[in-house]
């Protein structure tokens, strides 16, 4: 099977390429990635001899058309992915996430190629901290940020192309990922690399917001399961019952890294900051054989800390740039 992975030099996309290369060695994988600030092509070093990397944008209709025509499956990870950046400069989010997805859809429609579209739980908006409910596939989209609005827009385009043009596609919306190779602008790697540099963790607002953490390998195993066992036209929510407040994540990191429990700062909140995300992944678990393998957040974080400790050259330049942006944003 010839598989085109858009955004395959980013955090989750590169994890997918590595995981699929290990679990499905017969797949021929091509990565299409614009190599933005968020890309780390070095993440693909272990598979450079067997994976083709094409530098280009999903917004380029001719390139997308040519690559889609040459593959049997497209797994569409490419996106601008960081909420804080979307609040600062929304246009790249509209361009890549909406226009880019439109280009992919049109190419898939022309060539009959199977598509799996990667989305996020953030398209459903947020839940109150004291609301016991969780998102399901039936929850109406209600995005809060420019980032999540562009992801919800892309999802609506995919669903319309399924209904109107019968393209062979599936969608998945996953909760917050953590693990190796995540860009240091994101919450967990920002705090790990900060602590390694002797900088106290920075919690937005009161630190009480809740995210539903899942290990990146569990996400990518679920994507493989949906590709192989999912029903065309369907959306699947991916989550591993990992709800944890940001304060509790920082408490785990401080404990694992030998710092006092009160060694953090509360900083300016993110405008429009979603309170809580929570995923009900019963449908995925009922229709495929997928189960999360990482069920212990403390152990997963310990391994992630080790990875950042051992890969400073992978993250150092990006850290300098990310902190320059955060200091301008006052966070
Ligand atoms: P990331 O920012 O680490 O990687 C995104 C990749 O896409 C980068 O390699 C970047 O160069 C590439 N890219 C950006 N614009 C492009 C363009 N125009 N053309 C081609 N490539 C382009 O993001 P991530 O965290 O790995 O997220 C990947 C996908 O998973 C996104 O669609 C995101 O919405 C979704 N998602 C992320 C999470 C999470 O917790 N990080 C959770 C659920 C869903
Ligand atoms: O320094 C920080 N301090 C802090 O308290 C940072 C960077 C974040 N936070 C908070 C904001 C969120 O409540 O931590 C939480 C997680 O923040 P992010 O890592 O920026 O993730 P989030 O905004 O939840 O979005 C992530 O999950 C869904 C990904 O970035 C998205 O791509 C994905 O769709």
Automatic annotation (TrEMBL):
- Which residue intervals define the domain NAD(P)-binding in the entry? 4-294
Say if the entry is tagged with keyword NAD.
yes
**GO terms, biological process:** nucleotide-sugar metabolic process
Q: Which InterPro entries match?
A: dTDP_Gluc_deHydtase, NAD(P)-bd_dom, NAD(P)-bd_dom_sf
Is Transit peptide set as a keyword in this record?
Answer: no
Mind telling me which Pfam families this protein's record contains?
A: GDP_Man_Dehyd
Q: Which UniProt keywords apply?
A: Lyase, NAD
Q: List the catalysed reactions.
A: dTDP-alpha-D-glucose = dTDP-4-dehydro-6-deoxy-alpha-D-glucose + H2O
Please name the SUPFAM superfamilies in this protein's record: NAD(P)-binding Rossmann-fold domains
Q: Which cofactor does it need?
A: NAD(+)
CDD domains, sorted: dTDP_GD_SDR_e
Example GO molecular function: dTDP-glucose 4,6-dehydratase activity
Q: What is its EC number?
A: 4.2.1.46
State the Gene3D superfamilies in the record.
NAD(P)-binding Rossmann-like Domain, UDP-galactose 4-epimerase, domain 1
NCBIfam families to which the protein is assigned, alphabetical = dTDP_gluc_dehyt
Q: Which family does it belong to?
A: Belongs to the NAD(P)-dependent epimerase/dehydratase family. dTDP-glucose dehydratase subfamily.
Q: What is this protein called?
A: dTDP-glucose 4,6-dehydratase
């Amino acid at each position: 099977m010839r598989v085109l992975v858009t955004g395959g030099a980013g955090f989750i996309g590169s994890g997918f390429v590595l995981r699929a290369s290990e679990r499905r060695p017969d797949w021929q994988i091509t990565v299409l990635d614009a190599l933005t600030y968020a890309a780390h092509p070095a993440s693909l070093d272990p598979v450079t001899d067997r994976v083709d990397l094409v530098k280009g944008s999903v917004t380029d209709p001719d390139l997308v058309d040519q690559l889609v025509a040459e593959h049997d499956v497209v797994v569409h990870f490419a996106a601008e992915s960081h909420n804080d950046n979307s609040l600062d400069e929304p246009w790249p989010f509209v361009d890549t996430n909406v226009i880019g997805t439109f280009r992919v859809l049109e190419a898939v429609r022309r060539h009959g190629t199977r598509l799996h579209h990667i989305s996020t739980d953030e398209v459903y908006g947020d839940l109150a901290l004291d609301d016991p409910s969780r998102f399901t596939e039936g929850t109406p989209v209600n995005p809060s940020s420019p980032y999540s609005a562009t992801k919800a827009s892309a999802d609506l385009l995919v669903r319309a192309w399924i209904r109107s043009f019968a393209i062979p596609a599936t969608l998945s919306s996953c909760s917050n990922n953590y693990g190796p190779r995540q860009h240091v602008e994101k919450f967990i790697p920002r705090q790990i690399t900060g602590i390694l540099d002797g900088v106290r963790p920075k919690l937005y607002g009161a630190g009480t917001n809740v995210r539903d953490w899942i290990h990146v390998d569990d996400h990518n195993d679920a994507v493989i399961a949906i590709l192989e066992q999912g029903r065309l036209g369907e959306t699947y929510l991916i989550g591993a019952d990992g709800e944890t407040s940001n304060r509790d994540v920082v408490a785990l990191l401080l404990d694992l890294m030998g710092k006092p429990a009160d060694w953090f700062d509360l900083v300016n909140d993110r405008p429009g900051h979603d309170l809580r995300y929570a995923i009900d992944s019963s449908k995925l678990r009922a229709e495929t054989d997928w189960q999360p393998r990482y069920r212990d957040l403390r152990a997963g974080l310990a391994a992630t800390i080790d990875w950042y400790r051992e890969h400073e050259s992978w993250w150092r330049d990006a850290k300098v740039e990310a902190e320059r942006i955060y200091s301008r944003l006052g966070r």
